[in-house]
Amino acid sequence: MEGLRTGLYTATTGCRAGDGRRDHSPAAQLRKKKHNTSAIALRPRFPPRAPTPRTEQSRRLAQATAMTAPSVAATGTAAPPPPPPPLHLVVVPFPAQGHVAPLLQLARLLHARGAHVTFVHTHFNYRRLVLAKGEPAVHPSTSPSFRVEVIDDGIPLSSPQHDIPGLVDALRRNCPAPFRALLARLAAEADGGAPPVTCVVADVVMPFAPAVAREAGVPEVQFFTASACGLMGYLHYGELVRRGLWVPAMKHMRLRDMPAFCHTTDPDDVMVSVTQREYMASAAASSAIILNTLYELEKDVVDALAAFLPPIYTVGPLASVLASSSSTPPPAMDISIWKEDTRCLPWLDGMPASSVVYVNFGSVAVMTSAEAREFAVGLARCGSPFLWVRRPDVVDGEEAAPLPEEVVDAVACGGGMVAAWCPQAAVLGHAAVGLFVSHCGWNSMLEAVAAGKPVLGWPMIAEQTTNCRQVCEVWGNGARLPETKVESGAVAGMVREMMGGEMGKEKRAKAAEWKLAAEVAAMEGGSSWRNVERLVDDVLLLGVGSK
């Protein structure tokens, strides 16, 4: 693709691939000591960069250090090097739960490692959270070094969350000016002694934030909240429009498996246009790209992405890395606009191991009333107890219809439970859950990997189709419902096969392997753990990314 940087990545494992001298299986890695020097880590092999001019902030810092440091002549010994300036990160997520959650995890992880954090909500998501959960939902820490700011986005509170093109258009039109004003205010506070902003960490789909950061001379890095395979799909929208050819490292991918925004016959469609001309162009111009994935899961795609993007840091699953970073990890944050029904956990306690089908189609995607009914009847007839998270707004454009009588009967006799929302990580980690029926959103896929649960996919929007194809064809930890109109018989049949058939047995075994791989990546010395350290040392702290 024109204008994109090139580079190569290698994975270092401590010995040459295929020489047979070491066992690098997840199980073997997990048995090693925590300070495991053979854990996989990505190391960029880019040509040396030319020296970059200092920003005004770093120039002032150097002058102040030179003025205050005692000289060798005065003390008779060399002065110790000054401490590094405090790291101050401005974190900017897209205003949707699936974006806010991983960026909040990253912010908390870096805050736990000593960074000052300014977490930026837009008014749309901030108001929805406060109305639903109160102020604590938007303030993840009482520490003065973790602050929350809100910028105007011009989006009415009544706007539907699933109107993605409408949200995208409003954000790109309305947010640059208030974000510019926020950075100016933070710079003024720095003149008064507050920590200066050292880096903007922006969601890839908030391209105004890195653009404004570059205007202000502030380094920026970008975080892609979905999978590496989804990012590769988006990068090749232009090639699909021009030629319709295969995508590097994903030759098994069909056009219908590509991120669903490209499922249009209009080359000027707003989501195709914005993805190509703004999101991906902005990502390619960034100092670094952060991915909430584990390298071992998406190695081929991450390596191939290096030909198109700046240095890549795989730091996932972030929730697991965050939990590994402290003997007393911070509590989980509930940032959904629906109240979690925690009654599902004691209900699961009363179920046999691996017996329950857990169903959740995410926080944004919607379905028709006919589809909702077919899923409901299929669950009632699958022969397994089920926990179905059914959001109040899951049926597009209308109030949720009454549950079919079969579902009501199943719930009444204890064979099923329906909840508006639930603590998903805790549910997936419960021993009673044997299958996850999912939309294949990336946060859900990572939680399934971390919990070792097989997946039955029914993708709906964005890169969910791409994730589902990888689950089925590459990672092997799941299957997909038929790519036709949803029918209750197909739902019931696939659930039975995944719960008790040979296919389900194979998928569970693969899911267990990926669970071990995720544990190894997140533990101290693992690939994601080490990449967080490299991200801090190579980019955030040392200002390697300054333009």
UniProtKB/TrEMBL annotation:
EC number annotated for this UniProt entry: 2.4.1.-
Chain intervals for the UniProt region annotation (Disordered): 1-81
SUPFAM superfamilies: UDP-Glycosyltransferase/glycogen phosphorylase (SSF53756)
InterPro entries: Glyco_transf_N, UDP_glucos_trans, UDP_glycos_trans_CS
Record's keyword terms, sorted: Glycosyltransferase, Transferase
Keyword Transferase: yes
Location of the Glycosyltransferase N-terminal domain: 89-318
Entry-linked PROSITE patterns: UDPGT (PS00375)
Chain coiled-coil ranges: none
Family listed: Belongs to the UDP-glycosyltransferase family.
Name of protein: Glycosyltransferase
Organism: Digitaria exilis
